[in-house]
Design goal:
The chain has about 625 residues and is mainly beta. The protein has helices at about 5-25, 60-70, 75-80, 145-150, 335, 440; strands spanning about 40, 50, 55-60, 85, 95-100, 105-110, 115, 135-145, 155-165, 170-180, 185-195, 195-210, 225-235, 240-255, 265-280, 285-305, 315-335, 345-365, 370-385, 390-400, 405-420, 425-435, 455-465, 470-490, 495-515, 520-530, 535, 545-555, 560-570, 580-590, 595-605, 620-630. The protein has a single domain (about 5-630), classed as Maltoporin, Chain A. Helix content is about 10%, strand content about 55%.
């Protein structure tokens, strides 16, 4: 971005901030409403209200998912402010998520705090294309580098998918959905408690004829996905809780050979398995500890038989990756230990994390990788201080000892201050790193001497609530700088530390709820993302993004939701601008009674034609009709 342009955006951000402060001074009341009490855990590894964190946070609740009838975790995430994404086609096509323009490999995906990613893919990220919303309670998205608590892969941010925890009388649900393109989805599950045991589980199946992944393709690419997930917790004693979590997912996606390249028999298959054990022990009133162990396995297969178009292209490739992690976390309430004043909060968090990843691949074309592995030992500490329920400050440090590239240290600090006028000033600064993937280190295209990618980032923002919390305004300015990025060098035909990039921009939101049954929101993202090595735009990141949502409940049983997303100025390749586009989704929900609900969802209502990835199809207009039954 030119200096003049960047200064203009900074002035815009500051101008909005001054306006809100000025408006607030005239609207202050004696009984001030408080900021959101939504509790999150990802930003600091502690349960805390959103209003206490200086990080930029998005919380997608189960209520929001139901009203908007999101079809998957991917759909829920990609609609948010500051989030970009691209896919090589709907119905299971590979997808990348960009938080504030950072690479997909820089976003850590977790389920209930457990890491999941493909250890043997080129950049070791996690593809959200297949993950359903079954049994999901909420999704927490934390923007900016989180390596000081979560280590590698969290250089750009964290997506933590929180599943439902069973409680009370057992209940069960079943749902069925039919959609265009001969798409059928069925799911069932339940949750509840029995004595000291609580549980939740869900399973689902989806089948679709799909559409051609390649733009202008002539044959449909079908899709099938099955998934099972469960969670159990047992209160062994008054101060000891044990947990068990499991997930299994398999998907079969027909694909094509690439941009504009149709193929009648290209097939991609994926299988994922997760098992996690946990123990939470409240040692005494000031100290508790958590011990977690997880095992994750990811298998991908790529097959392509010879066909009439190309009789020589037949090949098979298999990729297998494993990830094991152990995390031992301690929380000490220093304020209680030292008998500090009630208006002072001081919590010290420290822990140890061990990661072991391994993977192997084989291909009929000869590019095989024998089973290889790396280990990482991480030591982290964080101090959170709160004063008068207004000022909250965190400081975190971490040291990682990686078996291949040595020791790397990261840090992060955040601050949040709530004025009496319900104006909240927040900000953060942090450093991050991302370890090279197994593929980048050990494949025939890799280099075992690669260094970790590194970054630093800061953001500063304002939030303002007005009119008894009916109106909320927020704006954040951010800047991130990346160096030693690992890129594929066509000259050397290997991965090398040759990249550098800068992303900066503004995220602003207006949320207005004049009455209990009406909600309006507008989100705006301006992103300037540049490849500093080649002085071009980073590919596939919208420069401007608008999000509009309208939600209205009427006649007690109906809910009407309209969501509009507009993306502008996207480049792929870096010098080719893709068509700007607007996607409108509409959902109508009807509650027949407390046990039966039906819905109608129209995705891409005006059948907009566009490309997220040059040469691949977008999702066309889809009609979805379904029913949910609980008992």
């Amino acid at each position: 971005m030119k200096k003049m342009e960047r200064n203009s955006w900074v002035k815009l951000f500051l101008g909005m901030s001054v306006f809100w402060l000025g408006a607030d001074l005239g609207l202050a009341q004696d009984d001030q409403p408080s900021l959101s009490k939504e509790v999150i855990i990802t930003a600091s590894k502690l349960e805390e209200p959103v209003s206490q964190t200086g990080s930029s946070v998005i919380v997608i609740t189960s209520e929001e998912m139901e009203k908007r009838q999101y079809g998957s975790v991917l759909e829920a995430v990609k609609r948010q402010v500051g989030i970009g994404s691209f896919s090589n086609g709907p119905f299971g096509g590979g997808n990348d998520i960009f938080i504030r323009g950072a690479n997909a490999a820089h976003t850590l995906v977790m389920i209930d705090g457990v890491k999941i990613y493909d250890a043997i893919t080129a950049d070791a990220n996690y593809d959200l294309a297949h993950l359903p919303l079954d049994n999901v309670e909420r999704i927490e998205i934390i923007k900016g580098p989180q390596s000081s608590l979560y280590g590698s892969d969290a250089m750009g941010g964290v997506i933590n998918i929180i599943t439902k925890k069973g409680e009370g009388k057992p209940s069960f649900f079943a749902s069925a959905e039919v959609a265009t393109k001969d798409t059928y989805t069925e799911s069932l599950g339940g949750r509840g408690s029995a004595g000291k045991l609580n549980y939740s589980f869900a399973m689902s199946r989806q089948d679709s004829d799909g559409i051609s992944k390649a733009r202008d393709g002539q044959e449909e690419d079908s899709y099938a996905r099955s998934s099972v997930n469960s969670r159990m917790n047992y209160q062994a004693t008054d101060n000891l809780e044990l947990g068990l979590q499991g997930m299994y997912l398999s998907a079969r996606t027909e694909g094509d050979d690439g941009a504009f390249q149709d193929d009648p028999n290209r097939l991609f298959e994926a299988e994922q398995s997760l098992v996690a054990l946990s123990a939470k022990h409240d040692v005494n009133d000031v100290w508790n500890q958590k011990l977690n162990y997880s095992w994750f396995r990811n298998v991908r297969q790529d097959s392509d038989d010879a066909d009439a178009v190309d009789t020589t292209e037949a090949h098979r490739a298999v990729f297998k990756g494993w990830l094991q992690e152990a995390d031992w976390q301690h929380d000490v309430n220093v304020g209680e230990l030292l008998s500090l004043n009630d208006n002072i909060e001081d919590i010290l968090l420290f822990g140890f994390q061990y990661d072991h990843e391994s993977g192997k691949s084989s291909s009929s074309r000869g590019s095989n990788t024998p089973r290889v592995s790396t280990e990482n030992l991480g030591y982290y500490v964080q101090n959170k201080i709160g004063l008068d329920d207004k000022l909250f400050w965190t400081l975190a440090f971490r040291a990682d000892d990686h078996s291949r590239f040595g020791v790397n240290t990261t840090g992060r600090t955040t601050v949040s201050y709530l004025f009496d006028t319900q104006t909240r000033l927040k900000g953060s600064y942090g450093t991050g790193f991302n370890a090279p993937s197994l593929f980048q280190l050990f494949s025939s295209f890799g280099d075992s001497t690669l260094n970790a990618e590194k970054s630093w980032s800061y953001d500063v923002g304002l939030e303002q609530e007005l009119f008894d919390q009916k109106l909320t305004l927020s704006s954040v300015f951010f800047l991130q700088r990346f160096k030693d990025l690992i890129e594929f060098d066509l000259g050397a035909f290997k991965y090398m530390n040759i990249g550098s990039a800068r992303t900066s921009g503004v995220e602003s939101e207006i949320k207005y709820s004049p009455m209990d049954n009406l909600y309006l929101s507008y989100g705006f993202t301006y992103l300037e993302a540049r490849d500093l090595q080649n002085d071009v735009y980073l590919r596939r990141r919208p420069n401007l993004k608008h999000n509009i949502n309208f939600d209205f409940s009427f006649w007690e049983k109906f809910n009407w939701n309209v969501n509009v997303t507009r993306n502008l100025k996207t480049y792929d390749p870096a010098l080719t601008r893709l068509k700007d586009y607007t996607v409108v989704d509409m959902a109508l929900n009807y509650a027949h009674n407390k046990n039966v609900k039906t819905f109608l969802k129209i995705e891409n209502m005006f059948n907009e034609t566009y490309q997220e990835l040059r040469g691949f199809s977008n999702a066309p207009r889809l009609f979805r009709v379904g029913a949910d039954i609980t008992y």
